[in-house]
Structures are given as structure tokens and as C-alpha cells.
Design a protein that fits this description.
The structure is a homodimer.
Chain A lengths: L15 H8 L3 H8 L7 H14 L5 H8 L5 E5 L3 H6 L1 H15 L5 E5 L3 H15 L2 E5 L7 H7 L4 E4 L10 E5 L1 H14 L5 E5 L5 H16 L9 E3 L4 H14 L5 E4 L2 H13 L9 E3 L5 H5 L6 E3 L2 H16 L6 E4 L2 E3 L5
Parallel strand pairs in A: 1-2, 1-3, 3-4, 4-5, 5-11, 6-7, 6-8, 8-9
Antiparallel strand pairs in A: 10-12
Chain A binds a DNA duplex through α2 and α4.
Chain lengths: 344, 344
Amino acid sequence: MTMSNGAGGRRRPPTIHDVAREAGVSRGTVSRVLNGGHYVSPAAAEAVNAAIRKTGYVVNRHARSLITGRSDSVGFLLTEPQERFFEDPNFNVLLSGCTQALAAHDIPLLLMLAGTKDERRRITRYITAGHVDGVLLVSSHSGDPVAEELREAGVPLVQCGKPMGLRSKVSYVAADDRDGARDMVRHLLSLGRRRIGMVSGPLDTPGGVDRLAGYKEVLTEAGVEIDERLVVSGDYSRASGEAGAERLLAQAPDLDALFVASDLMARGALTALHRAGRRVPEDVSVGGFDDSVAATEAVPALTTIRQPYDRVSAEMVRVLLAQIGGEDPAAVILPTELVKRDST
Amino acid sequence: MTMSNGAGGRRRPPTIHDVAREAGVSRGTVSRVLNGGHYVSPAAAEAVNAAIRKTGYVVNRHARSLITGRSDSVGFLLTEPQERFFEDPNFNVLLSGCTQALAAHDIPLLLMLAGTKDERRRITRYITAGHVDGVLLVSSHSGDPVAEELREAGVPLVQCGKPMGLRSKVSYVAADDRDGARDMVRHLLSLGRRRIGMVSGPLDTPGGVDRLAGYKEVLTEAGVEIDERLVVSGDYSRASGEAGAERLLAQAPDLDALFVASDLMARGALTALHRAGRRVPEDVSVGGFDDSVAATEAVPALTTIRQPYDRVSAEMVRVLLAQIGGEDPAAVILPTELVKRDST
DNA sequence: CTGGTGTCTGTGAGCGTTCACAGTAGAGAA
DNA sequence: TTCTCTACTGTGAACGCTCACAGACACCAG
């Protein structure tokens, strides 16, 4: 019954020409229906739609791209080493959110993993060749030059997280790091903690800097003296959280709380505290940041600052598409929220 | 000094025509150089390559695809619910491996997440429209009809893990589940354990079935009676591992070992054992499966069966490209390896 | 010298779409 | 009526590439 195409082979798909013939109109009219339907009579539009359904027509994106110059696809560029991609579920959440937001616009997402310098160069060339209309960039060490490079090449770009230099205007979407950190430290203070240690993020990134700034501000406001022995920095990896907590325990054994700048690092810190025989939350309260899967999986479950990742990815896509459409770069800052669990 | 294209705008990139003019040859010759360089004189080839370097020419893939009918891109299709994608690092490893293997062939990877039925339908239509040359399919519940559907549409396809039905020939790459399970159970027996429980994978998948089969075989061979109270099944999620272990502890409190069919489930099992006051590995030895990041992060670190994910992804890409090139579907089974850590 | 063979090269056509333009028909205004 | 305006439609020309073909040239055998 079905006109199956022979084993394995694909039949030639119908073209806009076939649809036009079927509907009794011209290619131009079909094209107009396909692209918004302006200046098309209702009768013609109906005939074309019927013909599309009947023939099973799907637009050939290559032919379209050839003439429009757009690829109607965007790249998701992750400039992180493999191990970070493997261990941090935040990337999956962002990836999934962006894919879905793009799907609503019928735009495919090309995954670009640039862990090494070679890959970075290859991918940069691919992008600047115009194979994608824009790029969603995820990179924690925002010092990397790839954003600048792409901007200079005129590629629409949205970064996840605040970029470091402000040399050229680049769009970004970020959570309110400073405010989130303030909430967490206030929460720890409200529990009666005064010797609050911090494992910050990398200090060559605004995210790392801002969370640390929030921490110091609130302590100062509360009249608690800043003790530099209570502050170390990590790189968001689990291992660096563990090492950081260990160092803090050595430098300041009397600490009674720990604010760790990511959930993954916080899990590392839990391991270190456990090994040192400190009970959480009885002896030490621990607060994380992100509210990723890692927070609920931790034992005890982590009190943390929720970053609205679903909104982050949606906004990234929105801003990118706007920029592809010709609008100016934009910055979006989203509010965070304190989520209380068992670790405080 | 550099002829920068004005703010934000992209200049029209050089075409094959520009290269031909620059090199003093025809379009045809340039095209031949681009596609393997057969039937081209060394002098012409050198001139063309110099012209390409000078002009910064990059092929326009849309124009090429329009005439060749190939898209020179492949899709990575994940038919799993979001939560699974968020919690299981195995997906990241596969994704990364495939992306890199494809990059070596200059083929971009389109990420397709089909967690819901709607998404699945949309994506199937996209694929069958010929927008990708082939599909790398990752799906744990291999009962889902998407593989069949795509095969029937003549789309080259490689599945990760053995597919359930054998209705039509579909390529797949899988680890040797049965053999891996046998190794683990033998290892547990060698430690003197006799009451070995198992949390299997879903039994509507060959992976789940085969690991359970290996478990039973080895026990029988060793003269240990199979006790059905010692077997439950999960769905590879962490939560199901925790629930499974809890059920086993209730049904067979005397168990002295646990073989859990994935590392993630094994971590769940560790939580349940901890809560029940059983020490690992003193009271209960625990073995996982996969050797994912989850295994080393677990406390204690998990003894597990290593699946060679790097080779899996490389083979998936190899088989898919071969199939796109016209070869017949193929099945690849890769060996596993026992990795001893602290949990046994 | 003729004819074949093999290597290399240029040329026109065409892939399936969009876009600019020209053209038609009908309505309303002068 | 005639002219203008608007709504709609069809047509040729691109977009940048590959492919098939034909032609040129060199070489060798007969």
C-alpha cells in the first residue's frame, strides 16, 4: 500500500515545484506561503497547504540557505576541558534548555566542544566561515579570547555568565551572583555562625569575584571581621572544592560554616569535612551555589542558591535570535533564590 | 591595516570563483582540489592551495549540499527524559566522544533531545526530511519505535547498545554486557560472598537482560542457588538503585554482596546501605557497571565493570559513516574490564 | 602517420530555493 | 471613462557549488 522506497535507498523528495504544480500556482506563491503568507489570497494559501500535506513536502534548507545567506542554525560552544563537561550537570541543563528553546523556532543546535587549543581554532574557523548564524557560548574562565575573536568577526554571540573585559559589547545572560552570595551569607549569619569560610570560584571571572564580594559585604555590614585565612578559591570542580575545604580546615580550624561557590565544589567540601570528622550541619553549616542536581544528590542535601537555569537558557536564545535579527547586544541579569535543605 | 568588515556586518566571503581567478585556473580544477585532488597536476594543485590560503576561502556547505544531496552533518538523538540526561554523566562521555570523532571528518553534530512524544515526532520529521545524513541513537529503553521508523525511512542509523527486536537489521555498538556481568559476579564469589543480590537494568532491554543472564550463569556454574528474592530491577536512575537496594534488604536481609547494573544505581544503593547501617565493603560488597565518573566520585569508590565509552563512540561514528557511504549495517561488540576499587 | 590511452583542464547545466520585478485584476476616486 | 492604488501572482535570475562532458595534450604502439 505505501509506496515504500526500496531497501535503504531514499526517494527524491518533493520540491517546491511539485507543490506548485499540485496546487496549481507558481513557485513564488508557494514560497510566499512558506515564509509568512503575506500577499497571498486565502484560496491560494489553502491550496498550497493542501498540496504540502499531500506531497509531504519539506523545505530544502540548503537551497534556502544558499540564497538567504543564513544557515538557520546556531552553535553551542563549550570552551571547557572534557573532565569538567563530564562531571558538571549544569552543562546538561543549559544544553537541554537551549536545545528546546531553539526547537521552538525550528533551529537546530550544533554542539561544539572546544576543550583544547586545536579544537578551539578549528571551531573558530568553522564559525567565522558563516556555517552558523550565531553562537551560544558557555565558558567559566571568561578570560579566553574566543568571545572577542568571534565578536570581531561579526558573529552574533551570547555568553552565559558575565564576561571579564568590557573591551567590546558582548551580550550575556547571568544570574545575580553578588545578590545570591549575600543571601547565603545572611542565612548563615542568621544561624548564629560567625566563622564563615568561603571557597570562591576562580577570581579571573566576574562570577567568582562577585560571589566573593557579596560574601565580604554582608560580613562587613554585620560587623564581622574579614579573615583572609577563611578564604580560598577553586575552579568549580569537585576536586578543587575538596582541596579548598581541606586548606581552610588547616588555616582556620575554628570555622563553623562554609560558603562554597558551586554545588559541585560543595560536595567536595562535604567529603573533606567528613574525613576531618566534622558533622554537617551540626559542627559546620555548608552552603552551595547553583542548585544543580549535585545539590539534591549530596548527603546531606545542600542548602544552596538557585540559579534559574531554565530562564538563563531561554534568555540566551532570545537575546541571540534578536541579535541575529539585527538588534544590539544586550545584558540580562536574573534573580537568584535561597533554597534551604539539610546542610545548614 | 586589516581590512576589517564594518561594525557587526560580515563581508561577503570569497567563492570558488575568486579562488579560481586568483589561481589562474577554472572552477572545476578548484573543485577537484577540494575533493581529493585526483586528476589535478601538482602545479595546479599548489596554485589553488596558495589561492585558498591567500583568499581565506572556506567552502560553502549549503551550495555543496544542494547539489550532492548530502548534508555532511549527523544527528545525535537521545530519547531519554530530561532528568536522566541531567543526572547521568555517561551521556556526556558519549556525546563528547562522538563530537570529537566526527570533528576528525569535519562533520558537525546536531544535538537532538527527544524526551517527550511531541519532540520525538518533530525530530523524526526533521531527520526523515534529509536534514542529516545519519543518526547516532542513544536510548536505554530500546523498545521505542524510533529506530525502526528511521530505518524504514532509509536513514543510516547506529544505536548505542543492543536493540531489542531484530525485525530489521540495524547497526549497533555495545559492550559485552553478559561477559562483564560474569566477571563481576566471579569477582564477588572470589571474595567469599555467596548471598549476592542484584539490581538489574530494565528487563525490556537486551542490556538489562544480558547482565542479569551473566549473573545467573556464573552463580549456577559455581553451584550457588538462584534466589529470586535477591533480584530486583531498576531503570538505571540513581533513585531506582536506592529503591532497589532497599527492597532487597527487606526481602533478603542476609545478603553479603550487591551487583548493581549501573554506577548511578550503585550510588543509590550505597545510600540505602548506609542508611540501613551496613558497612561497605565490610558487611556488603558492592559492584557497579559502566565505570563512569559516578564510580570514582562514590564513597567508597566503586568497583565496577568498565565500558570502553571512548571506543564505543569512535565505533559508532565509524560504522555510521560507513553506512552513509553505502555499506551494510554492522554490529560491534566491545570487551569490558573489571576495575577494582574500594567497595569490594 | 594514425589511433588509442591516459592525464589534465574548462564549460555549461542544474541542484531548490528566494528575491526583485513586472504584470494582472479589481476597487475606488476623479 | 480613465487613472491610481492595492492585492495578488508569475517569471527570470541569481546563490555557490559539483558533475558530466568534451576538448587538449602528451605519449606510446602499430
